[in-house]
Specification:
Elements: H1 2-32, H2 47-61, H3 67-115, E1 124-146, E2 149-171, E3 182-188, E4 193-196, E5 201-210, E6 214-219, E7 222-223, E8 230-235, E9 238-243, E10 252-260, E11 263-274, E12 288-291, E13 296-299, E14 304-311, E15 317-322, E16 325-326, E17 333-338, E18 341-346, E19 355-363, E20 366-377, E21 395-401, E22 419-423
Length: about 425
């Protein structure tokens, strides 16, 4: 009761103080004759009136707490703060749990994806089929003496070589490292062969590829097995097929097939078996070319080679001509003979070696000739080598008009012309 009376006295004094302040302000305005301007509203209020209004509004909102009530309210506020803190911690824990769960689900999905073995796509295949046709013409002139009669034969043989390349590439996805493969290719293709009955025939090829291809030989699409009659020698990038003794029925198409994981290549050529010629005068067989020398094109500085295989009764006199002049073997011109094959080698060719070469074979029963052309290409322009200075008037020799082939009847004169420029002459 005492506390209640004290509170009422406090409020009563406060009201009296407020009323006195209001009366003073009213008297002050009346004394100074301050009037509001017509059309305008008085916005400002007195300080005491504002404090009173604020106080009354606060009284309406909240009653004054007693000292014994303040402790209860403080405990309630602390309890609410603890509850808010607990709720905040629970919410934070829930959010963390959700984040951990999402991360765990993502990690699980990644592990599952790694465990699942993806099926590779189906393999794809692509094929390459190429075919080359090479035509080689062999010309020879044979002279045979039968008693008082001399027989001249001009023989032209055309050999057609078909080189066929077949490659099949299969692509697939595999695990691990795969070594690259280079499809096989023939760097030296099989050449046609001509032989007499009961003589030896020989085919040779050179090839390349990665990994090293395997070589198989065929006759008319039938595989050839290594045997005493058909000897196959393969080493590194070269393979040789030797037919120990040929007969007429052996004539046909022989082929070599190179194969590795990168693809397959094939080349083929003909074997022509001829009947043995009858012996001439005194049982001597005149010479004839089983294989004539072939024309060649080389770069300056490279080796030029001519091979001719000759049949006939020995002794045979075989020599070579350059533009009609007999070649004398020296340090640059070499002649070889092996197994009835006669070879002319020109070492370190120069442009002046471009000419028409002829192989001549003679015995007591007659003679045979064949021709081949050699073309030496001038070296490419490079940094000039150090040489003694030349006078401005010097000029290297140049062939303006080269020699041309001539066809004449026997016994008639032949004239060859060529034009060459250069200083000094």
């Amino acid at each position: 009761m005492a506390k209640s009376k004290k509170g009422e006295e406090y409020y009563t004094k406060l009201r009296e103080l407020e009323e006195e302040q209001v009366v003073k302000e009213t008297r002050l305005r009346e004394a100074t004759h301050q009037f509001a301007i017509p059309g305008e509203k008085v916005v400002q209020k007195s300080l005491a009136r504002g404090m009173a209004d604020s106080y009354e509004s606060n009284l309406e909102k909240q009653e004054e707490l007693m000292p014994w009530q303040k402790g209860v309210q403080l405990r309630q506020v602390k309890r609410e703060e603890k509850q808010d803190e607990v709720v905040h911690q629970i919410t934070k824990a829930l959010r963390q749990t959700r984040t951990d769960s999402a991360q765990e689900v993502a990690a699980t999905e990644q592990r599952e994806e790694k465990r699942v073995v993806r099926q590779p796509p189906d393999p794809t295949q692509s094929a390459v089929h190429g075919k080359e046709v090479h035509v080689a013409t062999q010309k020879q002139v044979q002279k045979e003496i039968q008693g008082d009669t001399e027989i001249t034969r001009k023989i032209t043989a055309t050999e057609t070589t078909e080189v066929e390349h077949k490659a099949k590439v299969e692509e697939r996805v595999v695990q691990g490292q795969v070594q690259p493969a280079k499809p096989p290719v023939f760097t030296k293709k099989i050449q046609p062969c001509r032989a007499f009955e009961q003589e030896q025939a020989r085919f040779e090829v050179e090839f390349d590829g990665e990994p090293l291809p395997t070589i198989k030989w065929f006759r008319e699409d039938f595989p050839i097995q290594n045997s005493p009659d058909f000897q196959i020698h393969t080493f590194s990038t070269k393979s040789i097929l030797i037919i120990r003794q040929v007969f007429m029925e052996d004539s046909g198409v022989f082929a070599a097939v190179a194969e590795n994981r990168g693809g397959r290549a094939k080349c083929s050529a003909n074997l022509v078996v001829q009947e043995r010629r009858q012996a001439g005068r005194g049982g001597v067989v005149p010479p004839s070319f089983l294989t004539t020398a072939q024309g060649t094109i080389v770069k300056a500085g490279q080796l030029a080679r001519f091979d001719a295989r000759i049949a006939g009764t020995k002794p045979l006199d075989v020599y070579w001509l350059k533009n009609g002049k007999k070649i004398t073997p020296d340090i640059r011109y070499k002649t070889l003979e092996e197994d009835n094959t006669y070879t002319l080698l020109i070492i370190e060719t120069v442009p002046e070696d471009s000419a028409q070469y002829e192989c001549v074979a003679i015995n007591s029963a007659g003679e045979a000739r064949c021709e081949a052309e050699c073309i030496v290409q001038a070296p490419s322009s490079r940094a000039p080598a150090k040489a003694p200075p030349k006078s401005p008037a010097d000029q290297a020799p140049t062939v303006i008009q080269p020699l041309s082939d001539q066809t004449m009847k026997e016994g008639q004169p032949v004239l060859f012309r060529c034009k060459i420029s250069g200083k000094p002459v």
